[in-house]
Amino acid sequence: MLHSSITVGDGPAELQALQILALSLVEAASRLSPAIKPDTTPGVPLSPEVVVAPLLVAGARALSLGYFAGPETPIEVLALSVRNTFEIWFRLLHLLESDGNRQAWRNEAITDQIQIYEAMLKLQAPSNVKSAIQGEIERIEREAAVRGLSRAKGPLMMSDLVKGKQYKGEYDAFYKLYSKLVHPSAWFVNMPTAVGSEMYHTTLIVNAQVYGWHILKIVEDRFGISSDQCRQIAIAQLQAPRAVIN
Fold it and tell me: Residue 53: CB partners within 8 Å, gap ≥ 6?
């Protein structure tokens, strides 16, 4: 059973709601992990758990941004938290659609890593450093081939993923807000009082919880992992007495 109530209007309770969600996602990931099988056989379809478990952990990290500084968490950090949680929710939907989507996502991870190294090669550096970086690129490519992975043409952006989807309107409505808050936009820089209004804070707090529960609901429906059990364990972890170090 999905516990989907939203906490809003009480600062400490809002932060605790985000903590509970983050811990719930970690618990769900830990329950998925035993089902993960080795992924070293090229051509063999991956079990969804291989890509879903890391996404859940990433979702927990995203939500933790929203409360990392307590009530003083800057609104741009809260916006980043919500934007990332939204992206993880929608990425999860995409990855569960097909084996091909999951394979492409894993190929992107290899591509990202290589592209970072290739960018580093364009910087001024001693030849021995560049040689080491080139060697690392070659090592990654060899390891990827063994695991049945290859370089992707390019990453699928959120704008690509939402095309033709029923969530396109939701993306258009909120993603612009997230972007204006996360980046030093003219609005963010020149109108700090407007940016810091309670209306935007409330929108972000609500959306963070909504997308967090959406993720748990998908995992519950697809894998049979009880979101309510994960939530109860999360609450117990928060309530457990912490050791005092003298």
Answer: 29, 32, 33, 36
> CA angle, 105 as apex, 65 and 100 as ends, to 5°?
145
Q: Do you know the residue count of the chain?
A: 246
Q: What pLDDT shows up at residue 82?
A: 96
Orientation angle between helical segments 99-121 and 127-146, nearest 10 degrees: 170
pLDDT at 125: 87
Q: What is the pLDDT of residue 41?
A: 57
Q: What is the DSSP string of 63-84?
A: HHHTTTTGGG--HHHHHHHHHH
Q: What is the pLDDT of residue 1?
A: 42
Q: Record the tokens describing residue 163, joined without a space.
A: 């095309």
Average pLDDT, the chain: 90
- Contact assessment for residue 46 and residue 14, using Cβ atoms and an 8 Å cutoff: no
Task: Return the closest-CA partner of residue 94 out of 165, 171, 182.
Answer: 165
Q: What is the pLDDT of residue 235?
A: 95
- What is the rounded distance in angstroms from the CA atom of residue 159 to the CA atom of residue 165? 11
Task: Point out the residues of the chain with pLDDT beneath 50.
Answer: 1, 243-246
* Alpha carbon separation from 102 to 61, 97, 131, 211 (Å, rounded): 21, 8, 33, 21
Q: What is the widest separation between alpha-carbon atoms in the chain? A: 59
What is the structure's pLDDT at 245? 46
Burial 185-215 (b: 16+ CB within 10 A, else e): eeebeeeeeebeeeebbebbbebbbbbbbbb
Rounded Cα distance between 28 and 215, Å, is 10
What is residue 43's predicted lDDT score, i.e. its pLDDT?
A: 60
